[in-house]
Amino acid sequence: MKITSISRKLLSRVLSVYFILTFIVTCGQIVAEYFNTKSHITNELLTLEKTFTGSLTRAVWELNTQQAIDIAEGLIAIPMIQGISVTDENGQVIAQLGRQTDKSNLKYDHDESSLTGHQLISSLKDGLFGHSFPLIFEFSGRTTRVGTVELLSSNGVIFDRIEIGIYFLIGNAMVKTAFLVFLFMLAFERLLTKPLQELTEQIEHFDIDDPELSKLHSTSYEHNELSILTEAYNNLIDELIVYKEQLTKAQNEILKSNQQLDEHNILLEQEVAKKTSSLSSSMLELQQQKQTLVQQQNKLQEENKRRSQTEKTLIQTNKDLRNSVIDLKKAQDMLLNTEKMASLGSLSAEISHEINTPIGVSITSTSYLADLLEKITLDVENNKLSKRSFIEFSNNAKHSIDLLLNNLNRASDLITSFKQVAVDQTSNKLRKINLAKYLDEIIQSLEPKLKKTSHQISVNCADDIAIYTHAGAIAQIITNLIINSIVHGFEHRQQGKIAIVITLKDKLVHIHYQDNGHGVAQDKLAQLFEPFFTTKASSGGTGLGTHIIYNLVTDTLNGSIEAHSETGQGLSYDIKFLDMANQ
């Protein structure tokens, strides 16, 4: 059996705790030194901003690119600066030197709070951090942002500055650790290991026949745990000697008693043998009958128990199944409503983003027109108005007004289309719609999603087809069909084509939808309308889009829908439902 040394085990644990504490403290000092140095470098970057912002602002304002590049080269020559980027107000690069990082990897510590604000940026992936500040030019009491400057430093600069300090901290920790290891090893060897070895050797020579000679003799004069252990062991030897003498006496008495018991046992066995012979046959029969009855009783109890448990299990299972069906129905309805609202929410976000563009252009045009009006008013008040300046004002004002009207009309059209489609999708009322115009409104509400692609949508519908139906269901069906084609059918394709053909015959509306996307394999086509069936599960797909379409067509419109597809040949739907005018 392998022997584990107590002194070594104790020494290893003590030293392990010390090593861990020393390592944590040293790492904490290095981290503190790192962040302190990084703070100094950041302050130096702020100082460089105050030093060079004036000259860079003047160079960018005067379009003096060469001067801006010269200033950038002077800054990059500073060892602390690892990269510099100077851009104009439109984000165009004027000068870019040294290391750069991907904008998607940048982390901004705080956003710009004003025109003259600045940002602290960092990139964990590239090991870069730095300072970004705007170039503000003041002219006639007005401030204008003419560009942006990014100064980048790196963790390598920090490590270069704190390298000597790190070596000193590590060396100091190693020296203290080595001295402590030596001191502990010497103390444990003298105070614990050697005394224990002496006691162990004496115990190994223990003689059971002569315990008196096996007593321990300690060479240490200190009164410690080892001396107490020695005294306790010697006391145990003394008690063992006494118990050994008593045991010898007891053994002799037991031998005498055993002889007497043997004689009595012989007599009793003879008497018992006589009586047992007469009862053995009767007891055997009774025992067999008892065993048979016990077995039958156990079988009956087990059968009753099993039937009772089975009945309880069936009752509970039936109850659980009913509750599960109710819960599943509620969960399915909730998921369908959530999917509908998520689609409408996504469409709302994209419409809002699209409306911001014409409104922003309108605000810019209005601001520009106000500046022109203020300037010509000053010219009139100072009697400096000339025919040329008035004609120039008239042309600029007309151009601004035209730009303003066009963008406001564009925003108004987007809002009108989305408002009608959104109201219909959240309402389940019947109303009369012109299918051709309503499809144009639906497609226009999807314009923010379509403008990011090169896909084409063609609609073939007579202008005079007007029906009474659930307009919200029609909008939801067409929206989901187009989004499914873009997300699934046209994946990894730059240009796709969607054709929608609508006919009306004997009050039966027939919508034929066709795209030229990837299509669906025959083995998966049968699962197309099942809930939670999706090929985009890993990308967050819910698999409820086509299931919602199926429910809207069959339940809301009381119609039918069929899908046809071959891999690589696109996907088509045939939707049929009745005009509800006379229902």
List keywords for this structure.
alpha+beta, 583 residues, 16% strand, 6-stranded antiparallel beta sheet, Heat Shock Protein 90, 10 helices, Beta-Lactamase, 13 strands
SSE layout and pairings?
Elements: H1 6-61, H2 65-76, E1 83-88, E2 93-98, E3 107-108, E4 119-123, E5 128-139, E6 142-154, H3 155-204, H4 225-381, H5 387-425, E7 430-434, H6 435-445, H7 447-450, E8 456-461, E9 466-470, H8 471-489, E10 497-505, E11 508-515, H9 522-525, H10 545-556, E12 560-565, E13 571-578
Parallel strand pairs: 8-10
Antiparallel strand pairs: 1-2, 1-6, 3-4, 4-5, 5-6, 7-9, 10-11, 11-13, 12-13
Helix pairs in contact: 1-2, 1-3, 4-5, 5-6, 5-8, 8-10
What report would you give on this structure?
The protein has helices at residues 6-61, 65-76, 155-204, 225-381, 387-425, 435-445, 447-450, 471-489, 522-525, 545-556, and strands spanning 83-88, 93-98, 107-108, 119-123, 128-139, 142-154, 430-434, 456-461, 466-470, 497-505, 508-515, 560-565, 571-578. The protein is of the alpha+beta class. Among the domains are: 6-178, 2-Layer Sandwich (Beta-Lactamase), CATH 3.30.450.20; 429-583, Histidine kinase-like ATPase, C-terminal domain (Heat Shock Protein 90). A 6-stranded antiparallel β-sheet has the order 2-1-6-5-4-3. Helix 1 packs antiparallel against helix 3, helix 4 packs across helix 5 (387-425) and helix 8 (471-489) packs antiparallel against helix 10 (545-556). It is flat and about 150 Å long. Mean pLDDT is 77; it is low at 111-116 and 537-541.
